[in-house]
TrEMBL record:
Protein name from the UniProt record: Small-conductance mechanosensitive channel
Localization: Cell inner membrane; Cell membrane
A GO CC term attached to the entry: plasma membrane
Homology family: Belongs to the MscS (TC 1.A.23) family.
Bilayer topology: Multi-pass membrane protein
Length: 292
């Protein structure tokens, strides 16, 4: 017992006891903060989105661990008012030295408040489309459909046009095509709407939409718009192309290729074109013998 008392007195004299206690506070606070942050999101399993759960988890973790760190610093005898002043000066210096990071940090706060998308949403930013796997203070991480990891700075997200493809439960697919001028447009409309009606992935409500876009250079341009559940969008897109082609072939509806007419002038006769059989090597050899 005397030996233990002597050891404690020795630790107090050499301040090792204070350092040990401060270290235990920091390490123990870290694990307590992790447990508390994991338990916090269990109180709101359905009320919060994945994005909100992540923000709540991080907020609880940093607040609790910060309190333990502050307590450890007080055990070591640090004056917190001086630390706060030094932190303010350091923050200003770092802000001037890293304006891009500060801009990304502020943009990240705006993203968390505005919440234009959440984790697991599919978004399109510029030419990049992928699933959101993380929304951090400095950047947003995406996983593309070919399994690539893409990091986009938050400042770019704020300044760019961001399209959330999974925001609503249904999506519309617009099929653009052209038919020959000799076709009956009413018949074409009937065939296309029949294709949409037979496809099980096309929703009955909203109704499929047929739009006559106008007269193109080589065809009458039309649009067929159909709706599908968000998870069936790609299946519908693949199947509708094949079904429209088969239906047009069945009813003899022509999808024309581009035509080009050449004129030498309004008062000039058309340039005559004569089709000839292609020459074979044997015919070329006989022609050479005849000339000799």
């Amino acid at each position: 017992m005397e030996e233990l008392k002597s050891l404690i007195e020795f630790l107090e004299v050499t301040r090792l006891f204070v350092f040990s206690r401060s270290l235990l506070l920091i390490i123990g606070g870290f694990f307590i903060a992790r447990l508390a942050s994991a338990a916090a999101i269990k109180f709101f399993p359905k009320a919060l989105t994945a994005h909100s759960q992540l923000a709540l988890k991080r907020s609880v973790f940093y607040v609790i661990w910060g309190l333990f760190v502050v307590s450890a610093l007080r055990q070591l005898g640090f004056d917190l008012s001086l630390l706060l002043g030094a932190a303010g000066i350091l923050t200003v210096a770092v802000g001037f030295a890293s304006q891009t990071s500060a801009s990304n940090l502020i943009s990240g706060l705006f993203l968390m408040v505005e919440r234009p998308f959440s984790i697991a949403d599919v978004i399109r930013v510029g030419g990049t489309t992928g699933e959101v796997i993380s929304i951090d203070l400095l950047s947003v991480k995406l996983r593309t459909f070919d399994n690539l990891f893409v990091r986009i700075p938050n400042e770019t997200m704020i300044k760019s046009e961001v399209t959330t493809l999974t925001k609503f439960p249904i999506r519309r697919f617009d099929l653009l095509l052209g038919v020959a001028y000799r076709e009956n447009i009413s018949k074409v409309k009937e065939v296309l709407l029949e294709v949409a009606d037979r496809n099980p992935l096309c929703l009955k409500e909203p109704d499929p939409l047929f739009i006559f876009q106008g007269f193109g250079d080589s065809s009458m341009d039309i649009q067929l718009s159909v709706w599908a559940q968000r998870e069936n969008f790609l299946k519908l897109k693949n199947s509708i192309f094949e079904e429209v082609k088969l239906a047009f072939d069945e009813h003899g509806i022509e999808i024309p290729f581009p035509h080009l007419s050449l004129y030498a002038g309004s008062e000039t006769d058309a340039i005559p074109v004569t089709m000839v059989e292609p020459r074979t090597p044997e015919a070329s050899a006989e022609q050479k013998r005849d000339l000799n």
